[in-house]
Amino acid sequence: MPRRSRRPRTTLLILVLAAITIITLDARGGLHVVTSGVRSVAADAFAPVRSGVNAVVEPIGSFLAGSVHYGAVREQNQKLQAEIDQLKLEQTAAAQQAQSLKQLSALLNLPYLGNLQTVPAEVTDFGTSDFAATIDIDVGRSDGVELGMPVVGLGGLVGQVVSVSHHTATVRLITDGQSAVGTRYGPEPGSLAILTGTGAGKPLSADLVPSNTPLTNGEVFTTSGLQGALYPPGIPVAGVVAARTGSTASQESVSLEPLADIAHLRYVTVVLWGPSA
Amino acid sequence: MLDIRIGGVHPDILVLLPIVAGIIGGPGRGATIGFGTGLVADLFLPTPFGLSALVGCLLGFAVGLATVALDRTAWWLAPVAALGGSALYEVTYGALGSVLGQPQMLHVALARIVVVVSVTNAVLAWPAMKVMTWGMARASMEGMPTSDAGVGSAR
Which of residues 61-80 of A touch B (CB under 8 A)? Predict the structure, then answer.
C-alpha cells in the first residue's frame, strides 16, 4: 500500500483517466442510464438530510464545530431548526396560507393550459450550481412527473424537467444557456422563432427573426407546439424588451424578458405532457 | 428552504477538501480526495457528470505538488493555497465545462464566482486544516496508509 502512495503521478493519471471515462460515457449515453440512476437514488437518499446539511454549513462559524461534532450538532440543529420553523410557521400562518392559497389557486386555473393534466409543486432550491440555471421542486416520479415535462409558473413557461427522482425533480430554466424553446409571434398563424437562454437573470435572445421585423415592446412569444416540439402549444414564454437590426444583419437582434417571475418562484406547475402525447 | 448565497454565488466548501488534503497529505492524497469529493458533488450538480471529479483530482495534485517543499505549519500557507486553489478550480471548471459542450458555463459571472468562492474558502482554510489533520491522523491510526509526503515533512 505505501508503495502506491509514493507514486502520486500514477494516482493522478489513473484518476484523470477515470474521470474522463465517466464524463465521456455519461455524455455519449452509454453510462447515462447508470449515472442518472445513481443521481436519482442519491437525490432520494439525501433529500431529507440536505436541509439539515444546509443548516449546518450556513453560519461560517459553526463549520468547525459542525464537522467535529457533526452528528450531535446536526441532530440538535435539526431539532432547533424544526422548532424555529414551527414557531415561525405559527406566527405567520394565517397571512402566509392566504397568500399561498391565492397563488396556488391561480396556478390551478392557468388559462393557457386548457385541459392538460398538471401537478402543483413547491420550489425547494434555486439551483445547486452557479454554472447552470436550474431549480429543484418537491414532486417527482411518484407524482407522475417524467423527464422532459414542461414546467410553468404564474406568467408563463418556466422550464423543463431535466432530472427526476422519486420525490424531487430538477428543472432547467428557460434562462439557462442550454435551453431553447420553439415559439410563435406576430399575427396568426405566427412566425417561428427559437428563444435561447443566456444565463440566470439575463434576458432571452430570439433566433430566426428576420431583419426589420416590426416588433413592439411587450409583444408576447408563445410556444409553437410544432410536431415533435418540447412544449405544448400556446404557453406564453417571454415578452419583447428590445429589438434592433444592424445595418448588415440578416436577423433582428431581439431581447426578451420571461413572463414568469423566474427569480422569485415559489410555486410552479408541472404539466403532465410529453412530446409523444 | 435554505439557500446560502453571497452576492448571488454559492460558496463552494467541497473545493476546500482537496486543497487541504494536498497540503497535508501530498499530491497523491490530494488527488484521491479531490476525485472522491468531486464525484459526490457531481451527484447533485446539473453540470456534466464527472467534471467535478476531474477538476478536483487535478486541483488536489497541483496543490500537493506546489506545497510539498514548503513548511506546511506556516500560518499563511492554508489560506493562500485556498485562495489560489479555489480560483484555479472555478476557472478550470468553467473552461473544461465549456470544452465539454456546455459553452454557457463560461458566460456566467465567473469573476464574481471566483472572488466569493476563493475568499470564503481562504477564511475557512484554517478550520478545514484542523479537521483534515484530525481526520487523517485517525485514518492512519486505523491502519490506512498515509502519504509519505505527510509523514516525512511532519516528523
Answer: 63-64, 67-68
pLDDT of the residue at A60: 45
Chain-centre distance of CA B80, in angstroms? 12
User: How far is residue A159's CA from residue A221's CA, in Å, rounded to a whole number?
Assistant: 15
Shortest distance, CA B23 to any CA of chain A (angstroms): 13
Domain boundary pick from A65, A90, A109: A109
Cα of B40 to nearest chain A Cα, Å? 9
pTM, entire model:
0.66
Please name the residues between 79 and 138 in chain B that touch chain A, using a CB distance below 8 Å: 93-94, 97, 100-105, 107-109, 113, 120, 123-124, 127-128, 130-131, 134
Average pLDDT estimate for B70-91: 90
Tell which of A67, A86, A109 closes a domain: A109
Please report, in angstroms and rounded to a whole number, the separation of the first and last CA atoms in chain B: 47
Q: Hey, is the C-beta of B152 within 8 angstroms of any chain A C-beta?
A: no
Domain of A97?
31-109
What pLDDT was estimated at residue A6? Answer: 58
Tell me: do A209 and A94 sit in the same domain: no
Do the domain assignments include residue A186? yes
Measured CA to CA, the distance from residue A62 to residue A68 in angstroms comes to 10
pLDDT, tens digit, for every residue of B121-144?
999 998 988 888 888 888 777 755
Per-10-residue mean pLDDT, chain A, length 277: 61 90 78 77 75 58 52 80 83 76 74 83 85 91 92 91 92 92 87 90 89 86 86 90 82 90 89 77
Q: Which helix (H) or strand (E) holds A92?
A: helix A70-108
How many CB atoms within 10 Å of residue A2? Answer: 10
Q: State the pLDDT at residue A276.
A: 60
Complex confidence, ipTM: 0.73
The three-class DSSP label of residue A209 is coil
Please give the C-alpha separations between residue B11 and each of B114, B119, B122, in angstroms, as whole numbers.
10, 9, 11
Q: How far apart are CA A117 and CA A145, in angstroms?
A: 11
